[in-house]
Amino acid sequence: xxxxxxxxxxxxxxxxxxxASYYLVFKPQNKEIQRARSEVEHxxxxxxxxxxxTARNADLVRANEEIQRSVKMIEARLPSSRxxxxxxxxxxxxxxxAGLQPPAxxxxxxxxxxxxxxxxxxxxxQGNFIGFFTFLAAxxxxxxxxxxxxxKITGMVKEGIELKAEFTLSIYFQDESQIAQGExx
Length: 185
Prior knowledge:
The chain is an alpha+beta fold. The chain folds into two domains: 1-76; 81-181, Ribosomal protein S6/Translation elongation factor EF1B (Alpha-Beta Plaits). Helices cover 58% and strands 24% of the residues. The chain has four helices and five strands. Strands 1, 2, 3, 4 and 5 form a five-stranded antiparallel sheet that branches. 10% of the residues are buried.
């Protein structure tokens, strides 16, 4: 088989067309497709990160709202400086209702306690054990924040008095001057 010039040119054209198409059309198109795919993958990765951050921000917003509710609940348990007097009267009434003798109270100077104020009141109550226990349980149930410390209980046996208890009752409150200035949370 002898191939002439014409056969050789047809063979070159038939073989050359796919080879030329590959280098001139398909190879550049494949590079463009690969570049577009990598760009899409990059943008999808960024989108996933953005969705994670958005979800975390939503969680932070919920956590902040929950913290604000907790702070408001605690602040509701803190009387203003005017409310401390009413709370002292309430404590005295609780002692009387529990069957204790009217308590002896001595108020000390208020002192700062973190962002709030603490009003220490030295108290002395006398009565029977059940009355004292009832009194402590009633103080515990008060809606305001209080603390009893430096307690000393002495046993006594005279005129229906079983014990004498000396302790410091601390009442926590918001200073009205700080509230007005916006210093308290």
